[in-house]
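Re: [help] complex structure
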Amino acid sequence: MAEITYLEALREALVEEMDRDENVFCMGEDIGAYGGAFKVTDGLLSRFGESRVIDTPISEIGIVGAAAGAGHMGMRPVVEMQFIDFIANAYDILTNYVATARYRAFLPCPMVVRGPSGGYVRGGPFHSQNPEAGFIHTPGLKVVYPATAEDAKGLMKSAIRDDDCVLFFEHKYLYRRIKGEMPQGDHTVPIGKARLAREGRDVSIITYAATVWKALEAAEQLEAQDGLSVEVLDLRTLAPLDDDAIFATVRKTNRVLVLHEDTRTGGIAGEITSRINESCFEWLDAPVLRVTAHDIPLPYAPSLEDFVLPQTSDIVRAVRRLAAY
Amino acid sequence: MPASGKRKAGTGNREPGTETRGASGNGKRAESDGSRFPVPSSQSASDRASAKLTRDQKLDLYYWMRLTRSLEERLVALYRQTKVVGGLFRSLGQEADAVGSAYALERRDILSPLIRNLGSMLVKGATPLEILRQYMAKGDSPTRGRELNIHFGDTDRGFIGQISPLGDMVPVMAGVTMTFKMRRQDRVGLVYVGDGATSTGAFHEGINLAAVQRLPLVVIVENNGYAYSTPISKQTAARQFVDKAIGYGVPGAQADGNDVLAVYDVTKAAVDRARSGGGVSLIELMTYRRKGHAEHDNQSYVPAGEIDRWAAENDPLDRYRVVMREELGATDEEIAAIDARVIRDIDAATDEAEKSPPPEPLDALIGVYADPPRERPLWFREGTDRAVDANERPEGWGTWSGRTGSV
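Output below.
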C-alpha cells in the first residue's frame, strides 16, 4: 500500500469517520470551499455537502461553543482552529464551559478541536505556538499530539469516537514532510497510550510531536559517534499521560531526558519529571533533564527562531551529560 | 451599491462600481434619526473636506498610493527571489482606502493598521526601508526580526502594530483613545478591521466599550469582499456592515473605498466628530481584494472574471489619475515624475535593506520583560552563540530509515 502524508492521513480519518457516522461534521474558517489554510479538509465539501462541512465567520468562541451545543445533542463535531494559536480566543469557553460540562451538568461534549500547531516554520509569534500546556492543566480536556502519519489517522479516529472533548494538535512542520503506510481496516490508536519510537538501553528521551524526529536524529548520531543506545518514547497523548510507559522506560535505562518544543516554565516536562521523582526515584542514575524551548515568544527571523527552539545538537549534548553520570 | 440598490451584501457577487455614495445618499436620514453622520461629497463639491486640500496635497495622495503599490511590487520580486521570509500580503486595489483614510488624521493622532494598510502606515511615517527590512527578517528591522511583514508600530509617529488574531486592535484602540479623553488631549484614534474581523468577540466588545465611553475613535470596516476565502455572504447576514453601527448606537457611513477623495471626506467627517466630542463612528469602505489572502493563495474560490473586472473598471490609481488630469490639470509628465520618484525611493531602500544583517541569535533573549532585560540561555546552550550546527539540516527530518511503526 502506498505511503501517504501526515496531512493526508488526517483527511483520511475525517472522511472515514464522516462516512461511518452521520453525526460527525466539520466546522471552521475557510475549511469548505477553500479546503482549509493547509488543505486538511480539501475535498470534504464536495463529498459531504455544505450541511456537514460548514464554513464559519471568524469566530473561535462561536465555533467551539456551537460544537459543545451540538455535542450535547448527540452530534460529533470536528472543529478547526485555522492556526492553533487562535484557540486562545476560545480559552474561556473551552476551560469554563466545555471542560466542566460533564462533571457539573452531566452534559457530554464529544467534540474534537483540531488545528495546525508548532514552529520551525518561520511563522512568527502567532502562527507557531504550542499552547498545549494550558489545556493539559485543565481537568476535563483530553489532549493528543501525534508525530507520525499512522498516529495522526488513528488518533483522529479515536478522538472523534471519544465521548469527551479532545484537543487535537497537528504539527504543521510534519504535515507534508512525514509519510507513513496506513494499516489495513479500521485503524484506530488508543488515546492515552504512548509509543516506543526507538528501543534503547542507555538513555531514554521522552517527547512528542515534531521533536520525536529530532530525538530520533540525535539517537542515530549518538549511536554512531558515542556508541550509546538511546530509547525514544513518543507520548502521543499528553492528557491523560501514559504513566506506565513513562515508568517502564525509566526503569529500563535509568537516565531520562524530557524534550519538548513548548516553552520550559509550566511545560509538561515539569509534570513528567515530578511523576518520575514520585514513582521511580530509586531507579534513577542521573537527574531528569529537560530540553525545551526558551521562555521567549517565538520570533520570526530564522536565526532567532532556531535559537529559541530545541535543536538536535541540544539533545545530543543533554544525552551525553546524562550518559556521563 | 447600497445607495442604488445594485449590490447587496450576501449575494457573493461583487460588481465593481464607481458610484458608491452611500454617505451622501443618506445624508438627510442622518439628521432625522442620528444613525448616519453627514458627509458632504462630490454632489456638493465645495463642502467636501477634500475641497480644502491644496493641489500639492492632492498630488501627495497619489504619491502615497503609488508608493504603496510599487513597494508591494518590489516585495513580490524579492519574495520570488526567496528573500522575503514568510508570507507576503498585498493591498492591490485597496490603496485608496488606506491612504485616503490615514491622510484625514493629524500628526498627533494614532491609527492601528491591518495587513492591507501598508498605505496607512506609509502616510503615518513608516518608511520603505523599514518595510523591506521587516519582510526580510533583518536584524535592524523595526521588530529586530521578531515579527513578520507590516506587524510593527511606532507610537511617536502614530501607528500601533497589529497582531494576527483579528479584532484585537479594536479594544486596544479603545484604551488608546480612552487615554486621550482622560488627559483631555486633542487627539483621535482610528482602527481598521476587515469584513472578517467584525465576526469576532474582540470587535464587538471593543466597539461597544468605546461607544459607551464616547471615546474619540473612528472604526473603519474595510469591506473587500473576502476574509481569506470566505465571502461576505458567509461572514454576516446583515445587508451591509454599516448597519452594525445602529446596534452599537454610533453613527455610520459608507463610502466608495476606491475613490481616495471620498475616503478622505468620510474619514475626515468622522475624525472631526470624534475630535469635537461626538464619540465613535463606524465607516464601511467598499473596496475589493484583487490578490489572495497572501501570495500563496490562488483565489480558486473567486468567481471567474470578478478580479479582472475590478482591475479594469475600478482601479483606485487609474481612477485618481483621471481626477488629477481633469480636476488638477496634472500632465502626464507630472504624473510620470511622481512615479519615477517612487521608484527611486524604493530602489534606494532596497539597496540599503539588502545590506542589513540577520539578527544575532543571542538577541532572541532580550526584551521579554523590562526587568530583567535579558533572559539567560538554557543550560544546554552554555558556551554557544548559535543554535544550529552548520551540518544540521532540519529539512532532513523524516528521512530517518526506521521512522514508521513501533519497534
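Residues 1-12, 18-32, 390-407 of chain B have pLDDT under 50 and may be disordered.
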